[in-house]
Design goal:
The protein is 71% helix and 0% strand. It contains 16 helices and no strands. α7 runs antiparallel to α8 and α13 crosses α15. It is flat.
Length: 305
């Protein structure tokens, strides 16, 4: 496996472009197809190329060789999550959860539990992932009906994350508190789509408050756009550039107007759960100096590159 080690060194030095990396990984699979080469290629397609269909094809070939370490199953479950095949990902994640525990594993299995409406298990897994995921844990506990636990976690969500706090308040049906958080968020998130969606949520839960909130939002948005235009005027000199800045500002407003009918759909969608993945790229040859191509990596399961 000296060739793979040489490739790793080349990539680490930044001398290999993406195309060369793909070609070399494909060459390694052609030369010696085993769990290591297939998993590395699958990881490349998932993380570097973001081609999850190709990643799935190669990781399934790796898994068919019955690997004895959890790393290929980490990649496999990750790819299934990215393809939104949550019911298939869950048993794999539970296996990884048992054999390779860690923050990313807890987060991924929590997301799969959540998407499969197993909210209590999701909440517990989010808590294991750490305090950074108090928002997700609170949302899951709310969905599970454990409002006391959700409220307790809500107190740990930082004050500078008002939209996250608003989400939890809405699930707890504490709409007045949610509206206070949304109001505080407006100056900070005026150009943020998430803020716009929350305004539509305010329209649903408290229509009498929505008009005033939206008027303030439009005022803040116009101020932000005017400031952006002025910066462009300061930087640019031609009238054509100034006109272009004004056109761009109007386009922003038009896009927000177009978002309104979609906002209700977005509100009903659960919060995004982008899968995490611990780095185990080249997991065998990079860490196991005794690797001969057939031996699977087993000595560095907790190593993060």
């Amino acid at each position: 496996m000296k060739e793979i080690k040489t490739l790793i060194a080349t990539i680490a030095e930044g001398t290999s472009d993406v195309m060369q990396e793909e070609q070399m990984l494909l060459a390694f699979v052609a030369q010696q197809e085993n769990v290591v080469t297939l998993t590395n290629l699958a990881y490349y397609y998932a993380e570097e190329a973001e081609d999850f269909t190709k990643a799935l094809a190669y990781i399934e070939r790796a898994v068919r060789q019955k690997p004895s370490t959890p790393q290929p199953f980490i990649i496999y479950s990750y790819v299934l999550l990215k393809l939104e095949r949550y019911d298939e990902a869950l048993p794999l994640l539970e296996y990884v959860y048992k054999h390779a525990p860690g923050q990313a594993t807890y987060y991924n299995v929590a997301g799969a539990y959540y998407r499969n409406e197993r909210y209590l298990e999701a909440a517990r897994a989010y808590e294991l992932a750490g305090e950074d995921y108090a928002y997700q844990a609170a949302m899951a506990y709310s969905k599970a009906g454990d409002t006391a636990k959700a409220a307790k976690l809500l107190a740990t969500i930082p004050a500078d994350e008002p939209l996250a706090r608003a989400d939890v308040y809405v699930l707890l049906e504490r709409y007045d508190d949610a509206l206070v958080e949304m109001d505080q968020a407006l100056p900070v998130y005026a150009l943020d789509t998430w803020c716009f969606v929350h305004l539509q949520l305010a329209k649903r839960v408290a229509p009498e408050r929505y008009t005033a909130l939206y008027a303030r939002y439009e005022q803040l948005l116009q101020a932000e756009l005017c400031e952006a235009q002025q910066q462009k005027v300061d930087e640019w000199t031609t009238e054509q550039d100034i006109e272009q800045a004004i056109i761009q500002a109007k386009q922003v407003l038009a896009k927000l107007a177009a978002l309104e009918p979609l906002a209700a759909i977005m509100i009903d969608e659960d919060f995004a759960n982008d899968a995490m993945l611990p780095c185990c790229y080249y997991f065998c040859p990079m860490h196991d100096t005794a690797c001969d191509g057939d031996k699977e990596w087993s000595s560095c399961q907790t190593t993060t590159i």
